[in-house]
Structures are given as C-alpha cells and as structure tokens.
Design brief:
Rossmann fold; single chain; alpha/beta; 6-stranded parallel sheet; 8 strands
Length: about 220
C-alpha cells in the first residue's frame, strides 16, 4: 500500500505561464546585469540551484554562497510579482485527484519532490491555493541533485510516519524523465503525467510504472494499492 505520495510542481501540479523562467531572467538582469541569461536553458526537471550554477558558469559569475543568496533573495521577489501577471493555473484534474487521495480510507501522506527552492515552491503553490495539502517533501535548496532529493523526501516521510518506508510504499508523480529517474533512485512507483513538456511516448520510453495524459479522472485508489 502507498503511504507517501510525492508530487513534482511545475508541469505536474501547476503551470505558471512562465513566471518562474521570467523571474530567473529578471533576476539575472536586475541583480547581475546579465540580459537574456536563461536563453537556451532547459528548466524541465532541474533544481533551481543547478540552473543558477549553470548560468553563473556561462556568464563568468563567481558561484559563491553570497551570489547564490543574492540571486534567490531577488528571485522570490520577482516570482511573487510575476505570478500575478502571468496566465497560469492548476494542471488538469489536480485538485480532484488530491481530493480523492485525501478521501481514501487510509489516505497517504502527501509531499513534494521538487527542484524549486522551498520558498519558491510555497509562493507558487499558495498562489494557486494548493500549498496546505502537503505535509512533507524535499526542495532544491536541500540538494542540487534531484535523485538525492528523492532520498531526502523518503527520509522525511519516514520520520513523519514513524516508519522506515520502502520504495514500494512511495508513489512519485511527475512530468519529466528526471522525475522518473527520481522515483527509480528510491525504487518507488512512478506515475508520469504528460501535462508538462513531454509527450506520453517520450515519458513511456523511460518506463514509469504508469503513464497518463493528465490526472483528470484518475482513480487514486488504483495507484495507491
């Protein structure tokens, strides 16, 4: 039985209308005087710190702790501002699917497994009134490596449930091949959703446990047995 469900955010729970990418670009432009810093950067499934480090390297900016703090202090400001100007929404079926999980006779603990820094994740999910559904998780400021985040999320879920969760008691839900790799890193079950930038065919090539077009109409009980 699944006891912990871990959701990715961007492309899985919500689509922000590009607010996150725009906030990255605006931060580099205003805080580091680097226009178009994110051009050609692939954000899908990445951690925020790894993206910042790549941009620092591309533009000869010292990847110091102070510069990371400088970046993220400005980033969360721009993210909060831009969310109110971008056309985003919860992904199809998300609210209903979460409701069905919460209504199960033995509901699993719901958590996040995301490359967003924690404050960025909270800003995004509060904007779409989703944040309060999640009691645990791992975030980009916990580790730059997504697979290490899966281990951290597993450990935190185990602590909250006061049990050592095995991989087959965990369900990861995400929209990219890197999310599938996260699930594989802890031998978890994987529900891939094609609501982000990858098609069903592209996701199926990475052999998730299940692959669906969206969470609309999804039978939560089926995935939690």
């Amino acid at each position: 039985m699944i006891r912990l469900v871990l959701f990715d955010i961007d492309g899985t729970l919500i689509r922000t209308g590009g607010a996150g990418v725009k906030a990255f670009a605006r931060t580099f432009a205003t805080a580091f005087n680097v226009p178009d810093a994110t051009r050609g950067l692939n954000f899908a499934g990445r951690t925020d710190p790894s993206l910042v480090r790549e941009c620092f390297g591309s533009h000869d900016i010292d990847a110091s702790a102070e510069n990371f703090r400088r970046f993220f202090d400005a980033y969360v400001f721009w993210l909060h501002d831009l969310l109110s100007h971008c056309q985003g929404a919860a992904c199809a079926g998300v609210r209903e699917f979460i409701g069905r999980l919460e209504s199960l006779p033995q509901p699993p603990l719901l958590g996040l497994l995301t490359g967003n820094i924690r404050l960025g994740a909270e800003i995004k999910l509060r904007h779409y009134d989703l944040w309060d559904h999640f009691q645990s998780g791992a975030f980009g400021d916990d580790h730059e490596d997504r697979n290490q985040l899966a281990l951290i999320a597993q450990q935190r879920g185990s602590q909250l449930l006061r049990d050592n969760l095995s991989g087959d008691q965990i369900l990861v839900i995400g929209d990219t091949p890197l999310d599938i790799a996260c699930a594989n890193a802890i031998n978890a079950k994987m529900l891939a959703v094609a609501t982000g930038g990858y098609s069903l065919e592209e996701l199926n090539a990475h052999h998730p446990t299940w692959c669906v077009a969206s969470l609309s109409g999804g039978n939560a009980a089926e995935f939690c047995l």
